[in-house]
Design goal:
Rossmann fold; binds zinc ion; four-stranded parallel sheet; 2 domains; 36% helix; five-stranded mixed sheet
Amino acid sequence: MKAITPLNIVQIIDIFIGKEIRMPSVTFVCYFCKASYPASLITIRCERCFSPLDVCYSGKSSSAKNVLTPISDSDALISLGEGNTPLISLDELGNLLGLKHLLAKIEFMNPTGSFKDRGTSILISIIKEQGVQEIVEDSSGNAGASIAAYASKAGIKANIFAPSNTPVGKTQQIRVYGAELHLINGTREDAAEEAIVYYRKNDLIYASHNLSPYFLEGTKSFGYEMVEQTSSAPPSHIVIPVGNGSLFIGLWKSLKELQRAGVISNLPKIQNHECENRYTAAILPGKSMERLSLWRDS
Ligand SMILES: [Zn+2]
């Protein structure tokens, strides 16, 4: 296979965001027991072991001219300009920590303020492509706002279930996009249970960012961009803040695809940290994580 240059990676991202999207043959495969299912909006976990499902592309592999995406028609891509976020150097903080290179990818510059927009773009595009007119989602804030915004763009009614203690800034954001907000007195888990009851009762599509394999496919763009922004020399360590872990999984999957395509040779070590407000995804070439742990505890 011909080696892929950084210029080719730019072409990959161009294809990913809709300039030349190809339609591969897609199936869902269980991460745990490897059971296979036809790709579907109503199949969101393994029927045998209830594990999450992965999007698999039979007979195709990632290359400069054929990016792996489940979207069949570029005209169906629902985008608000997500992705292509800056990768900046944190020189002063790096010096304080004794790190020669400390970089941060600024994901809050996505359209609704979080990386969720990457996954939402692909998920809502598939939903729109299949003619769905109303969806249900549960969220603690960011994902609900993201789904609400992209559903509005697509002309789809969104029902967002969130716990009643969701920050008012997020509830207002969800409402301003035109979604119907269902505030639930209870925990985040209670909101999810109510959403499931609602979509089953009303025979709607459950657009769960936590469970949808399509959402994870969208988060892969983070890794493609990072490799392009580092001229195909990705850092040796990447720290990812996680809640449910979708960005963590999407990054890993993108790097594996780029490795198989010959774009990168070595896989970075990826470390996750539970989300806290003061963190963003940090990339630390050639350094261990102990320093970051010290920073966190200080
Ligand atoms: Zn399974």
